[in-house]
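Appendix C reproduces, verbatim, an entry submitted by the partner laboratory led by Prof. M.T., so that reviewers can inspect both the input and the predicted structure.
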Amino acid sequence: MRAPRGVAAPFALPLTVLLLAGCASSVPTTRGQTQVAPMAPSEVVQSDVNRMATLGMRDNLDSLLRIADKLYKRNPAEWRKTGVTSRDAALEKLRQTIERPAPWPELQGKRDIAALSLALSNDFSGDRVAAFVHASADMLVTAHGGKTTLYLIDSLDAQYIYNAARNIEIAVWLLSTRRNAAGQTLLLADEISGLERNLSFEREFGKIIGRLDLLAEVVTEKYRRAVISYVQNLAGGTFLQFLPVR
């Protein structure tokens, strides 16, 4: 890099660094800032992949609850089937059953993909929003080995994580295309019309799918790099030995 006119070459690099630092400090934060979670003692027994999977699970469950809130707003008849007095009460009940976790009674004891199929069936008459979101959450947890927090002793199967992402894609497609006996969609979600364009559901589902696909790739890469590192160490131990000099 050429030094600015009138500035000696030895001072050009420090000046460039200062200019870049000034630019970095002026990054706008009007739409929020990155959040750093407080350090927890349990993180000592978590690998980088464990931590990534744990944060991804937390964010995916939060996304599902946001989707539930949006679906309840567009489908108020669903939360009224639960027997609660308000939409907020229905959402809180759903949140508690996901975080405990506890079974959702209307799913008849079914789990993960079986529960998801029931929630999206034409003849399901219960609170479809809660059943759909609860089944989706259970499917994600199952794909992570039944854990929401992972440690060094835990392992992940990349194919199960990948399959979970595809299951979400299928569920979103069924949600928008399957019709009941009256010819109506099972739940009102995204809408594109001459007067309104609402794709917030698609964006939230897209975040979940993206997190799952990235985690599946990271887990796959972890084991691939372990094999490569083993070969490199083996080759290094054989061919890259220091030679005597006396």
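The first helix runs from residue 9 to 24. Additional entries are available on request from the coordinating office.
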